[in-house]
Amino acid sequence: MRTLPATDIELAAWLRLSLAPGLKPAALRLLLSAFGLPEAIFNQSLEALAGIAGETAARAVLAPPSPDFEAQLDAAIAWWALPGNHVVTLDDPAYPPALLTMPDPPPLLYIKGRLDLLHTRAIALVGSRSATPQGVEDAERFARELSQAGVTIVSGLALGIDGAAHRGGLEGVGGTVAVIGTGADLVYPAAHHALARQIAAQGAILSEWPLGTPARAANFPQRNRLIAGLVSGVVIVEAAMRSGSLITARLANEMGRDIFALPGSIHAPLSRGCHRIIKQGAKLVETPDEVLEELGFATPVAAKAASKQAVRREGAGSEHASAAIQSELLAVHAPTSVQPELAAGPASSSAPPAMSAEALQLLDALGHAPATLEILAIRTEMGDAALQNTLLQLELAGQVTALPGGRFTRATHG
Description:
Helices cover about 50% and strands about 10% of the residues. By secondary structure, it is α/β, with parallel strands linked by helices. This is DNA-processing protein DprA.
């Protein structure tokens, strides 16, 4: 093996341990506690290692590195040399302290962006990839207000709720951290390339996977474990009964973190997972302030004032208030990202096949929570006349019910 600088020698030792097949993080932590740095571990006998972590772990440590190890090491050194990139090991002061409370913290982390965000108060905000428009709005609003209160928003960079959480987190001083299930040099899903660049520039992207690791289904539950480990609490916005978000909630609960869930309509498929964990002891929350209070995080006066102002705007019936709502939603809810989700949303399957394309779009945009004309206009980009005519069509078909206060909701059947 060629001669390396001291820092590269240390990295090589850590990388070799992190890539050793069959060496679990919990066993590695035992070995590090007993012998110190990785170089010392490699100098031990099989019997000494086995006495601490078992024979399987001992053989994994002493097995020769894979033939492509040199190439992997070169790639890690080159990646680390790029501006904004970091390789952080368990003995590094920059290692996220919250992860050290886990029984199996990863030995090596690849991080793009701000290391300071891994040492702050943090809350995870996760949910369905097939989020409803209402769920996307709720996730962005919760993330934005929590971030404005100085709390870092952690999520998994998936489509739907995760993406909305990151966008909201970027709007506050708390910022956002994306924990990903691929190598740190890759972006998955591809639709989030622009968002990932923004997070790397203003927040942080974190991965425990070696560079070049593609997206694999088995990686994401392990990614969820890191999300749970980094935070004081987890907020579930929307989740079906079988959802990765519920895995995150379970893992977080096992680590002693607080679990919160937003309730929804009993008719909404993506509310069922939230209702299930509420029944199991998660705290039902309706506002970001409730999350802050439960975790003992102070809410800045300015953030409270902004929240109250938003409530007043929502309650006002004047044209000025409607314009304010429209301006605010347009700023945080780009139609281009919502439209494909509307076309594939879960609600369209329940609409009668005879409905027009506009009616199907409006029914999807309505979701399972009441919405005003202003909100529906923004979600659908319909003109006033087309919106009114389509709502009337849905009312006559028994699919929509008008509520007091100029709101509309999906009709309940059965």
